[in-house]
Design a protein that fits this description.
Elements lengths: L9 E4 L9 H28 L6 H28 L7 E3 H34 L4 H4 L2 H27 L7 E2 L6 H5 L7 H35 L3 H32 L5 H25 L2 H16 L1
Length: about 300
């Protein structure tokens, strides 16, 4: 069992412990939330792209978040729904599918941070340099920054997962509800020192640049607001920054919670639940925060429903 040729291509996944009385309500609730995520986020993207007044840099960046949320939810939620309906003996996944899922899971998480970094920069320019905003943050600049955000995340994750895929396998069990990078290299009996070093560096670079840039951006915005005596400007700045900051705090807290729970084996079931919520609750909340709680988007939604009613 020292190499790939002596071990099967099928891996065994852990499952979420759900009682026979609660698996049907859990399935229905998860399905409804998934439908809401898909409808709300795709609807938000369509609304922004079809309304010229919303085709502004800030809302085009919101499209990035919505697309990423749909991508992140689709990676794992259908998988959870299927697993709730299957017995333990049927819980298998092919190694190639596991590697693809691990890549997509980390790409979703990495893109969430890189896109939110760009959104923080957008808010910084809008509030601290409003006269230069139209010249600096153009639709072309947003397209270039979005491509850079996704491209950077893609390269970082490709190397991360590639280092794990190169290893031989001597185990079959995935100690998680879905595949991630840790699940892949834990299947090997070889030395994973390189994987740990790169994984640590990847985490430090991604989270360090994310936390650092967002923190410095909002400190600068706070200084500008405190030095300004214009209450109207400060109120508008607070409204535009509150949604972004709320989404970012939720993302960071969710990520740190899962990392902390990994350090306590006795809390394995809590970690599984937190993993599910990270791919379900955040995309649903993002749609609410950027959609229903945004005044301009909310007005456009009302206009669409009013026009449909008249028609």
């Amino acid at each position: 069992m020292g190499n790939d040729t002596s071990i099967g291509d099928l891996l065994i996944l852990e499952r979420l412990k759900v009682t026979s009385q609660s698996f049907i309500p859990a399935f229905i609730l998860l399905l409804l939330i998934y439908v809401f995520i898909m409808v709300s986020n795709i609807g938000l993207v369509v609304l922004i792209l079809r309304n010229r007044s919303l085709q502004q840099p800030m809302y085009l960046l919101v499209c990035n978040m919505s697309i990423n949320d749909v991508f992140g939810a689709t990676i794992v939620v259908p998988h959870f729904l299927r697993d709730l309906l299957t017995i333990d003996s049927e819980r298998y996944i092919r190694y190639t599918d596991c590697a693809v899922q691990a890549f997509c899971v980390h790409l979703h998480a990495s893109a969430s941070h890189t896109v939110l970094m760009i959104m923080a920069f957008d808010r910084y320019v809008a509030i601290c340099n409003p006269l230069r905003y139209a010249a600096v943050i153009t639709n072309r600049a947003v397209a270039a920054l979005s491509a850079a955000a996704w491209g950077t995340a893609f390269v970082l994750v490709a190397v991360l997962v590639g280092l794990s895929v190169r290893l031989s396998r001597c185990r079959l069990l995935i100690f998680n509800l879905f595949c991630d990078n840790a699940s892949l290299f834990q299947l090997s009996c070889e030395s994973v020192l390189i994987n740990n070093i790169y994984g640590l560096g990847y985490t430090v670079v991604l989270l360090g640049s994310s936390l650092g840039s967002v923190t410095l951006t909002y400190l600068r915005i706070a200084m500008v607001c405190l030095s300004s005596k214009n209450r109207a400007v400060n109120s508008k700045a607070l409204q535009t920054c509150a949604t972004h900051l709320a989404v970012y705090v939720l993302l960071v807290v969710s990520g740190f919670l899962i990392v902390i729970l990994h350090r306590f084996p006795l809390l394995a079931e809590h970690r599984k639940v937190a993993s599910v919520l990270g791919h379900v609750a955040l995309p649903a909340l993002n749609a609410v925060i950027y959609g229903l709680l945004n005044k301009e988007v909310r007005q456009r939604i009302k206009t669409v429903f009013h026009n449909n009613k008249l028609t």
